[in-house]
Amino acid sequence: MFGFVPSFTFVGCAKVRRRIVVCGLSAEEPSKNIVLGLNEYSHDASVAVADGSTGRLLFAASKERITRRKHDAGETGELVAHALESLGLAAQDVKLVVTNNHHFRVLPFEKRLPFAVGIGAYPPSLLQDPIRGKVEKREISHHLAHAWSVLPLCPFEEGLIVVMDGMGEHIREFTSRKRTGHYVCDYDLPKADPFMEFPAEKEPFVGYREAESVYHFDKMNLSRVYKRWTPENSPPELYNHGFENMESLGALYSRVSSHIFGDWNTCGKVMGLAPYADGETADVEKSFNENGQLFNGQLITGDIQIDLEALDQLPAVNDWTNEESRGFYIHLAHKVQQEVEDEVLSFLKELRVRTGAKNLCFAGGVALNSTINGEIIREAGFEKVYIPPYPGDDGISVGCAMYGAFCSSEVGLSSSPRDSTLGSPYLGKLYSELDIRYALEDPEIAPYIVVEEAENQDVIIEKTAGALADGMILGWYQGASEHGPRALGNRSLLADPRDPENMTRLNRDIKRRESFRPFAPSVLAERANEIFELDGLTDNVSPFMSLTAKVRETMREVVPAVTHVDGTARLQTVRKADNDKYYRLIQLFAERTGVPLVLNTSFNVAGEPIVESPTDALRTFLQSPIDGLVIDNSFVLRRPVITGLEEVWSVQISTSIIEIEQRLTYGGLESEIYVSLLDRKVQLLSEIELELVRYLWEEDPEEEHEITVAECRQLMSMEEIPSDDCDRALLSLYRQRIIHFRDVNGDVP
């Protein structure tokens, strides 16, 4: 019978293994005792892989990076296959799977899944999992999984773990008489002294979900300190499970995100918008209770009540495109940020006093709020604070994997200081030189780029530092991808922080997102105090870009591109031991400019996840006006623009075209024409382009005859289209990467 063991007696693994490189870090070769952790069938689906014989975290990735759909949910079979292939493992190496889905229990759901798929309620893909039915599978509850995502990985051995998010597990799972040892929750943990649970008396026939949880840990021993439940105020069968009407701080913040941007999962936008308020919130405050507050009560007394009626009456729901609404939105964002921040800080201060704890781990969706995190570190009074690089639900898989590994009876942590590399964020697939070469030579990409190969790392770092100092905005693609929502120097867009125009270029032209969104500085850890007011905190206070700090007034004009409107920045402190190549790049940039930091933002455009594979990086580079791309030791530029065509050039059409679609506009008087390719959809600009694409695409691909520019002109002349118009259409198709050209030698011109 599998259950949570409050205290552990571990037997260390005595096997000797050779050393290999796993996900960019020196690690032991994985044993054949692999534990998988899964967050599945819910948003931010993810997988984590741990060695069940050593407890080492080997791999972690979110489904969105593979499917290219942001916050992707659902089944994880494809993601599991990707993880095993990345580590050179087979399905039979997996000995245990631990999972969580905070909406419903996974094991009962999967037990009935074959029937549901059979009647068409779910797609067959839910049954296509390389380990389905072959491996023992267990579950842990949502907040417990968040707790385990930090417990074995934080750099201290005693303290509090505070979990705050929108909603966690349903109370029926905790109290069910049918609960077995294959499902473990908080109620299997001992109670600490003091222990607080709210409401103490639950109303009958009311559904409750986890809102905030607090645990105490001493080495690997967990106990319960605090648990608050939020009632389900609307039917959970409604869209989003009634999430926006739950009375947790995370749900409140997400509710405001939905009100402003129409999306509960864009809380980072609310946080970025909040500092634009001038402090005058009277128009917002009069909408709420007599105190003008979003909620009454306190977390520490468990009596918080959110003013849901007032929230329902707020004007301008999801009306961001209307500029007249934006002043109201700014003040609403400021209000929710300030009130949630104040309540979190008050709660943590009181917890510290009541428990005597010196250290704090913070996880759950609220821990993604870097402004709150900065206040916690500066004001809450804890000696040490640890916030993981993946505090949101993409970190649930890590907690599941760690729980499975450390509760498998083989693994334990000694009383010595913890390994500082355990919490590394660089947990994705380490793509090989062959993978990168294949992407660079892809016939859909190669005709549009010029690749300059560097002799070694030193040369490419020197060249990149020089390009940044000269004003170029670069994609920086190195090593294994980061797990979590932040780009921490392996999947980044980099720029010179001294140039304020880089903010506009990145937001408007490259990322195509709102102008108020700030950018992060990646700063040499030992020089962070020169630029930021860290109030005596350790220089490596923010390795995972988890908190904001004030930019020193004397430096704000020096680094305006990373200084937000309120004089703060969400910084990443970089140490050589954590990311040697990125550290050396910043170091060389500092030698050239005197500024020991670079502007860092995630390598993606609006609406897309951070790039994962070399091909993702190259496609994003070609689709946006990034100046250059550094991918491993290759410096990639766009091929110079073709302004004129030669008659003898052959015209090559993309092999990734899926379909041509013609849509009638409103009224049916005009049409829009789209070409769907594997990685994007392109709108054609003229009927001439459509005729050319149709002809080139429908030609028999087995024929050896190549279509030349001259033949295209002749074809179009039969339709009484001048050669100049034909050339303009060909060049337009070339710029959209639907066609490319070859000269008489077969080379790309």
UniProtKB/TrEMBL annotation:
Taxonomic placement: Eukaryota, Rhodophyta, Stylonematophyceae, Stylonematales, Stylonemataceae
InterPro entries: ATPase_NBD, Carbam_trans_C, Carbam_trans_C_sf, Carbtransf_dom, NodU/CmcH_Carbamoyltrnsfr
Similarity remark: Belongs to the NodU/CmcH family.
Top-level taxon of the source organism: Eukaryota
Molecular function GO terms recorded: catalytic activity
Residue intervals of the Carbamoyltransferase C-terminal domain: 466-636
Stated name of the protein: Carbamoyltransferase
Coiled coil region boundaries: none
Domain Carbamoyltransferase: 35-100, 141-402
PANTHER family, per database record: NODULATION PROTEIN U
